[in-house]
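Can you please make up a whole protein chain along with its backbone structure tokens because I've never seen that pairing?
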Amino acid sequence: MRPASEAELAEAVAGSVGPLVIRGGATRFVGGAEGEVLQTSGLAGVVLYEPAALTLVVRAGTPLAEVEALLASERQRLAFEPPDLRGLLGREGVSTIGGVAAANASGPRRVQAGACRDAMIGVRFVTGRGEVVKNGGRVMKNVTGYDLVKLMAGSHGVLGVLSEVSFKLQAMPEAEATLVLEGLDDAAGLAALRRALGSPFDVSGAARVAGRSLLRVEGMAGSVSYRLGRLRQMLAGDATVLEGTASAALWREVREVTALAGRPGDLWRLALVPSAAAEVAAAVGGEAVFDRGGGLVWLLLPEGQGEALRTAIAGRGQAALIRGAGASPFAPEAAEVAALSAGLKAAFDPRGILNRGLI
């Protein structure tokens, strides 16, 4: 099924006699949902774009690339830097803005600008009953009722099918540059990232890849130069600077996890206490890409090491198998969290037809 309007979407969901697999471009789809495929790519197009107000309202099936090109024409962007993980996950197709929102897909700039959910200011979606729900609007003010905008972000289509999303935008900076620290092991390199994130120098990216610690700053050219200088003084050690397009290309590789793309083995996504990242990676081996100062770790391991990994991170974070046998975008839930999830699904999708089996 490929509805071309919100009314057709609501009719399709209401009339479904079995489970539905919700897909936009199928570029982020991970897990074992079952049923008839419901494509949202027919719900495409920009509803409203007000550059002066830094506001965008767009239908869920609109390709992400089209959204980014439109914003770039006005020197604006989605601040949360949505990643393109097609290479990492071995996917083809076209990423849609609804898929970005449903996955809460957020890149390295999350440490400064927040996640996708923080940029979302409104949603329209269809529940498992076939009812159209609207929440939020075109301004960052929502003081009545439930914050369904935040609830839908990262829900992966199990609570409702997004038909429209509203975003607040960010102006593109005049300059960007990256400080590259060399000659440090993982523990020291990640400690340097955490120290920089705790500084007043407004770091917009903090990652460690292939033995290099990377710190990005953005803004007015003079401010960028000043903050880079202060970071070099604070952290000392061997350091070089990449500017402009070279810096942007480097961070594209970070957010797309290019270093681990096309490699055999199980791919894990770890959400950790940043101070534990180096110890966890050392305990289980494999190859790691550290983002967000160590708060997000992409870890490539030989098959079948899940139990050892979960033991290593016990009490310090969560692990989800993203690529490999039994892959899922979600880590196992504690009993209390699972009960809350079940209650929400019962309220929004009482028939259990939306992405059944995914969570």
Notes: The longest helix spans residues 221-235. The chain has three domains: 6-171, 175-255, 258-323. The first strand starts at residue 20 and ends at 23.
